[in-house]
Design a protein that fits this description.
single chain, alpha+beta, four-stranded antiparallel sheet, 25% strand
Amino acid sequence: MFRLIVLIGVVATLAACVSTRARHGYIIERGENELTAEAGIDTKTSVLARYGEPSIVPSLNDNTWYYISSTSNARAYYQTQTTTRTVVAFNFDGDGKVTEVNEYALKDGMQIELVDRETPTRGKELSIIEQLVGNVGQLPTTGEGEGPGGP
């Protein structure tokens, strides 16, 4: 019985070390090496027919389409690491023809540090007990136009 418990513990420990690989965003189809378009020849319609809906279209500039794909590895208790990221930007002119295609890799990105500060809220911080029994015993008023019980 002891050996069985130890064996289960070892298997659970080894299972926690398995890494998981995930792909997100646009997945390049078989036979495709990269996303390309010819400037002046391809249009929004031809890019849409060839590659499908873009990952992102900025709301203020619909003349740039972004196709984003990334691969990441995750291990049990470690932070997920992005191993590859590709962003392909198709720029269009006013007539909807491709003007240029730019490709960005993971190395082209910028690391953004998040701020740990919190904005304080107004009012009194209540404990759990105060929140649970805060309104016990308070009855609505029945006077006309007064308090929470009024019209």
